[in-house]
Please model this.
Amino acid sequence: MDPIPLTRPCVRTDAAPPRGYPPTVTATSALTGFLGTSSTARSLDLTGHSLPSGPPGLRLAMSELTAPAQAYRLALARRRLRSAPPAPGPGSLVIDVPGWGAPESLTAPLRGYLRSLGYDARGWGFGRNRGDVRGDVRRLERHVVSQADQHGPVSLVGWSLGGVIVREVARRRPDLTSQVVTFGSPIVGGTAHTVGARVTGQPASRQLEVYVERRDRERPITVPVTVILSRRDGVVSWLSCLDHHSPLAEHVEVRSTHLGMVLDPDVWLTIAQRLARG
Model:
């Protein structure tokens, strides 16, 4: 089942935390969503949303300390996760890329879940993501070419900076990419609207922001793109996750911290649902 559409668009600033859901969401459904026994994921309309204005505030950043709690939601969501549609074909190949600084093993549970649905889910094969975006794009592109020769078009999944990498590969090789799914990935502005901006500095962030904007405007991604984001993200501004250029982009909002997305059952189920479309 696809995520429930929003009843109305909301405009919020980066600094403001989420203040609840539309009136159609009851206290009971909010509680079951919090526990993981029901979905809190919902489609997001881009109408009325402003552009990002910088990294998330300190309060959101501190909320990342609650990320381990997602493991409990994941355990309680087992029945719901088993209801996901199976892979559209035997051994459908999926390659996932971790976020900046994260080891490949961090997304192993997600790959295990996708394998249980019939996918040939694999890591990208390069270990820890060390932040060399241009080099990683070239390496992953060569890897996708090699795998597509054997298996046909590949589905690409990326968390955070990993999503930036898979998007660029899909942009370069739409003939070999069946679809892209990103979660918590800064699509607008590179690092300019993430906590990484405090490390790279304003000039470097601005330079990357201009480059990314030009790439998206002049050469939009033409394969289906699913963007998973959260207003509770304390690392990446949720507004910077919005894809305003890809013609086949769809957005799904979840209630998760940035680090918690790796184990969020709504993220897992959304990925499974979108991959099942083939």
Summary: Residues 1-25, 27-31 have pLDDT under 50 and may be disordered. The chain has one domain: 27-257. Residues 27-257 form a domain with the Rossmann fold fold (CATH 3.40.50.1820). The two ends are 15 Å apart (CA to CA).
